[in-house]
Amino acid sequence: MKRQARAPQLRRRLGRADLRAVPEARRELRDLLRHWGQPGRAEIAELLTSELVTNAIVHTGDEAVLTATLDPHGLRVEVRDYVARRPRVRVAEPDENTHGRGLVLVESLADAWGVRPHELGKSVWFELEADADAA
Question: Each residue of 44-68: pLDDT tens digit?
Answer without folding.
Answer: 999 999 999 999 998 888 899 999 9
